[in-house]
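Appendix B, Record 12. Input sequence as logged:
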Amino acid sequence: MRHFNRQSRDYKFIEKVEAGLVLTGSDAKSLRVQPVQFQSAQVEIQNGQPVIIGLNIPLYKYSQGQTIDTTRSRNLLLSSSQIKKLQSYRKQKYMLIPVTIYSQGVWFKLEIGIGRKLKKYEKREILKKREFRKSF
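Logged structural output:
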C-alpha cells in the first residue's frame, strides 16, 4: 500500500532519496490498514540523525491500552554519505519533503523529495499546460 503526500505537488524536486522508517509494531500494523496524514510532516536532521517530524500515523485499532503519541518524531535509516548529502542540500536552502510511504516486503520505506516550493506563477503555468493537454 502506498501513501502519497498531496502537498508534495507544490514542490519542484531536483532529487529523491529512499529511506527506511523506524516504527513500532502497532505503527507498522496501522500503516498496512489505515492511511497516513502528512499535513505538517517534514524531514529534519537532528544531531546528525535524519528524523521525520509531524507524520501522523493513527493508532492501530486492536492495540490494547497503549497511549502512543501519533505525531511523534520517527528516525530514518540512511547511510552516512546520504546524510551528508541531505545536510549539504539543507545548507543550500532546499526543503526535505516526505513524498510517499510504501512497503517493500516487510520493511516500510519513505521517499524524500529534495526541492523548492513552486511560486504561484509556476503553478499557474503547470495548470495551463495540463488544461491544454486535456483539450486534445
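The domain at 2-134 is CATH 2.40.280.10 (Small Protein B; Chain: A;).
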